[in-house]
Structure formats: structure tokens, C-alpha cells
Amino acid sequence: MGCNKVITQILIFLLMVIASTVFAVKPIKKNVVKNTTPDLNKWLQQSFHKDALNTYVVFSHELKSRKLQDDKRIKPSQLKQKKAISIEENSRIFIVVVDAGHGGKDSGALGISGTKEKDVVLNIAKKLMKEINACPHMRAILTRDGDYYVPLRKRLMLARKSKADLFIAIHADAYFDNDAAGASVFALSQHGASSEAARWLAQRDNYSELGRVELDSLSDRDPMLRSVLVDLAQTATIQDSILLGNNILDRLDNVSSLHYTHVERAPFVVLKSPDIPSILVETGFLTNPKEERRLIDPAYQGKIAKALRQGISQYVNQHAVKGA
Questions:
Q1: Distance between CA atoms of 314 and 87, rounded to whole angstroms?
Q2: SS3 for 142?
Q3: What local confidence, expressed as pLDDT, does residue 3 receive?
Q4: Residue 24 and residue 34: Cα distance in Å, rounded?
Q5: What residues contact residue 184 under an 8 Å CB cut-off, 6+ apart?
Q6: What domains can be seen in the chain, in order of their start residue?
Q7: Which of 27, 160, 173, 293 is the most buried (most CB within 10 A)?
Q8: What is the C-alpha separation between 312 and 239, in angstroms, rounded?
């Protein structure tokens, strides 16, 4: 009986050894917490068309590039002091295209004593060019430097070819009421912007010319995205145009009376560059005898040119600070 008991205990012991070998408990591993932060690129690839991702990447690189350029150009001490950045501190050449209205076969408005608008505005444009070129890091380009006609669209093409930062069209007004007087400034109207956006979107060849909006990476299957990008560019451009126009009105107010005290909006063709801030300045009314005499006076023309340049300089300084 005692022998059977010993044998039973031995068998139990052996079973326990076998069980511990077969059903050995594996060591417990710590759970590794995976990074749950979504991958933005993968999310975009899953959610949007590939072209939208390309646009996102292009815009991201452009923003980083501009930020690096601004950091190099602006010293930390300048940011702490919130000091306005002068034109001299901006290393980039700022191109201003000055457009003397009319010319050649197109005389423009006629004064009471026969003064031709095309002659007055060309003289002012040349004086403005000298004013601008006298400023460090600024350069002016005339759309015409003589008495000849330049088609309106060609004036815009010249501005784009010159990589212009600003476009200033100079004119002189006329009205049936000889008492009408004063200078005024115009920026592009929303109607003009909408029609120009449609024109750009309808002409594929224009995409490569739109310098501040990257459309080349988008396929023809993305008309909505193209439309949004052009609209964004035009909105920003019109806002800059109004800022420039207000600066110039402030300066002209010291030289001449103002026909309008705020920037007016109109669908002038020469204002329709989607990415170049553009304004049209009416320097006065040739149909007003008093203003006609002033507008043909070289000294007064020089005052107008200086006021325009001062408004442009103020805009450039504001633009530099805004970029910071």
C-alpha cells in the first residue's frame, strides 16, 4: 500500500514537470504605445487629389523660403524696436512700372486751351521715373518714353516681363463741367477682377506667367482649385493696391485738391494684373482752366511726381514690415 503511494507521488511529480515544460508561461512584454499623430501627407493623399497635395507642398516650400529670406534681411534688434524698415535696408530691387496714358494717335483728354493729356502725363511719368531711380534699391520702367501708342494689354505684358512689383498708370481727367477739379486714384473693381480671373482660367498659356500663384503643377482636371488660387491672388493684390492708393492720396493732398478722398474702384484694363498691385492716378482735370495751367507747369508736374514717389516709398516700407 505504501509502495503504491510512493509510485503515485512520483507520477504526480513527473506530470507536473511535463506540464511546466509544455505550458511554460512566456515573459510578459510591455505594450509599446504607437505614435497616433496622423501623417499629414498620407492624410492628404487619401483625402484629396494628388494635384492638391502638390499645390500644398509648393505653397509650404514657398512660405518657408520667404520666411528664411525675411529672417536674413531683418535683424532681431529691428524687430524688438518695431522700427520701420527703410528702402535702403531692403536688399531686393523694387521694380515700379510707370505707365503714361494714351500716346501717339490717342491724345486723351483735351484742355480748354488745347493741352493734350498724352503730353502732360508723359512729362509727369518721366519726372516720377527720375524720383524713383534716385532711391536706393528702387527702379522705374516706363511703358512708353515718347509720343507713340502702346496697346493696353501690351502695357500689362511689359510689366510682367519686367517682373514689376507695382504698376502706376498716370492720367489727366476731363469732364463737361469745367468746375470739376482735383486728383483721384483708382484700383481694380471686383467686377473687373472677376472678368479677368475668367480670362486667365480660360487661357492655359497664362498660367506660367502668374508669378505669385503656382498653377503649373495643377492638371486641367482641377478648374475649381485653379479658380480659388487665382481668386486668392487677386484679392491680396487688390488689397495691396488700395493700400498703395491711400498712401498716394495722402501725399497728393499736400499738393492738390482731391476729387475723391478715398480710392475708387473701376474695371480699367491696365489694372487687371492678378498678381501686381496696380493703381491709376488721375492727376487733375484738364477741362478746368485753373488746373490746366497748373498741369502744364513743369514745377507743378515735379511736385506731383514727388508726391507719387513718396506714396510709393511709404508702401515699400509697409510692405517690408508686413513681410517681417
A1: 9
A2: strand
A3: 53
A4: 29
A5: 173, 258, 259, 260, 264, 281, 282
A6: 84-190+242-323 (3.40.630.40)
A7: 173
A8: 15
